[in-house]
Amino acid sequence: MRGDLIRILSSVEEKANELKLEGFEPDVVLVGKEAYEFIKEQVNEEFGGEEEVLELSGLKVRILEELGGDAVVIDTEALGYAPAARRFRVVP
User: Fold this and answer.
1) Residues near 22 by beta carbon (within 8 Å), at least 6 away in sequence
2) Closest residue by Cα to residue 7 from 38, 49, 53, 34
3) Which of 12, 42, 66, 87 is deepest in the core (most CB within 10 A)?
4) Measured distance between the N- and C-terminal CA atoms of the chain, rounded to whole angstroms
C-alpha cells in the first residue's frame, strides 16, 4: 500500500532530521528482517519488479535480524560514544 511506504519513508526522514538537529550525520538505516521484508514488499508493489532495497531516503539499508519489525536510523561515526540512533516501528 502506498500509505505504508509513505509512512516508512516519513519515519526515516523524521528520525534522520532529529539526529541532524543534534549535530549528527545519519548514514545508515538498520532494519530487522521482518521490517525489511515488509519494506521490500511495499517498494516492489509500488514500483514493480523484485528488486532489493539498498537505500531509504538517501541512507544505506543494512539488515540486523534482531530488530524484528523495527528500524534504527544511525550515525555510524558517532554510535559508540554518543546517543546517535533513533528507533521506530516499521511493521504495523
Assistant:
1) none
2) 38
3) 12
4) 12
DSSP 8-state class, residue 92: -
Per residue in 11-40, pLDDT (tens digit) is: 999 999 999 999 999 999 999 999 999 999
Q: Is a pLDDT exceeding 90 seen at residue 79?
A: no
Q: Concatenated DSSP letters for 2-24?
A: HHHHHHHHHHHHHHHHHHHHTT-
* C-alpha–C-alpha distance, residues 85 and 22, integer Å: 11
- In eight-state DSSP terms, residue 79 is T
Rounded to whole angstroms, what are the CA distances from 70 to 17, 19, 29, 65, 91? Answer: 18, 18, 10, 10, 7
